[in-house]
């Protein structure tokens, strides 16, 4: 009989069909498997600090494993001592022995151990003395709840995009981080440590990707209702590929059908589409929106259906978003806007 068809009151042993395997043993195995799956899911490589794809992240991961190893040794020693205290011989110790134990175990060992960890940790601090010119400068402005991203091109002009970061592999990228409203924090776990984006000041962070791929950056400081929906894909390209991408992003948008519906609905009051509508800069730049991977700063994959849902009920998908609903537009106008946006490659 198939397992899923047994009456629920069948004794577990009967349908296990294997001598020596008990229901509890199986449940235990299953729980372990489920736990492992959950644990592994938490370690998906695109947002894992333990799967480094950058210089700083690799150093941080090494520090993590080093500290974990030291912690494990300390844990074993103290657990061993505890077990010995419970099971070992009960004869009283001399006062001298007790004093020594307290002195070495409570003063000498923690002092040396913590000092060693401090030295290793300090060695990983960025050294500003050797800071030279970065290969790329990127201005990142965090806003509730999205990312304004502007690349400094070689001629000094800025190329603005939003909610998706592209970087050349093996190059040092310097991020100038700020915010327009509250404190946010810019974090790409596989590439390096996080840094706050604070209104009224500019924090500088450098990262050097070492592996091509697509990663996930997040906001790491609670900033309001949709803090958890303030993410961005990070694409690390081979250098030539990155330059081609940046050159393409620098181009104005190509005229596309549906533009009249976009204008009539007033989208241009908040969004810039370079070459087509250059008035509003409140919301994300949409010049090459159709080439992006997600909608609403990493909230949904960019698909036609998701984009239509987003126009109808942005607040439902992302609470606290400033984007108004366009549910009252006639369907054909909304569809025209969706087609127009998808064409903005
Ligand atoms: Cu922005 Cu949390």
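^ structure tokens above, recovered residues below v
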């Amino acid at each position: 009989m198939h397992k899923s068809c047994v009456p629920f009151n069948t004794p577990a042993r009967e349908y296990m069909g294997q001598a020596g395997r008990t229901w509890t043993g199986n449940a235990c195995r299953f729980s372990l498997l489920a736990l492992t799956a959950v644990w592994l899911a938490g370690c998906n490589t695109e947002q894992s600090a333990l799967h480094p794809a950058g210089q700083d992240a690799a150093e941080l991961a090494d520090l993590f494993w080093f500290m974990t190893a030291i912690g494990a040794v300390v844990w074993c020693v103290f657990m061993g001592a505890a077990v010995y205290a419970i099971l070992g011989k009960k004869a009283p110790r001399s006062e001298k022995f007790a004093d020594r134990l307290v002195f070495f175990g409570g003063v000498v060992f923690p002092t040396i151990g913590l000092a060693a960890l401090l030295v290793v940790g300090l060695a990983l601090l960025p050294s500003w003395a050797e800071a030279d010119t970065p290969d790329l400068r990127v201005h990142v402005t965090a806003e509730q709840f999205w990312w304004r991203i502007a690349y400094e091109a070689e001629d000094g002009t800025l190329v603005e995009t939003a909610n998706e970061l592209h970087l050349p592999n093996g190059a040092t990228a310097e991020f100038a981080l700020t915010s327009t409203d509250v404190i946010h924090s810019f974090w790409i776990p596989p590439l390096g440590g996080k840094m706050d984006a604070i209104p009224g000041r500019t924090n500088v962070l450098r990262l050097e990707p070492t592996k091509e791929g697509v990663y996930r950056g997040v906001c790491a400081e609670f900033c309001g209702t949709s803090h958890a929906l303030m993410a961005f894909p990070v694409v690390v390209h081979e250098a030539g590929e990155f330059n081609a991408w940046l050159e393409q992003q620098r181009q104005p948008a190509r005229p596309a059908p549906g533009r009249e519906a976009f204008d009539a609905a007033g989208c241009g009051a908040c969004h810039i589409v370079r070459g087509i509508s250059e008035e509003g800069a409140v919301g994300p730049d949409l010049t090459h929106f159709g080439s992006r991977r997600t909608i609403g700063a990493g909230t949904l994959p960019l698909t036609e259906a998701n984009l239509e849902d987003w126009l109808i009920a942005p607040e439902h998908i992302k609470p606290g978003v400033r984007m108004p609903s366009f549910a009252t537009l006639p369907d054909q106008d909304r569809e025209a806007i969706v087609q127009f946006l998808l064409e903005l490659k």
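The first strand starts at residue 136 and ends at 143.
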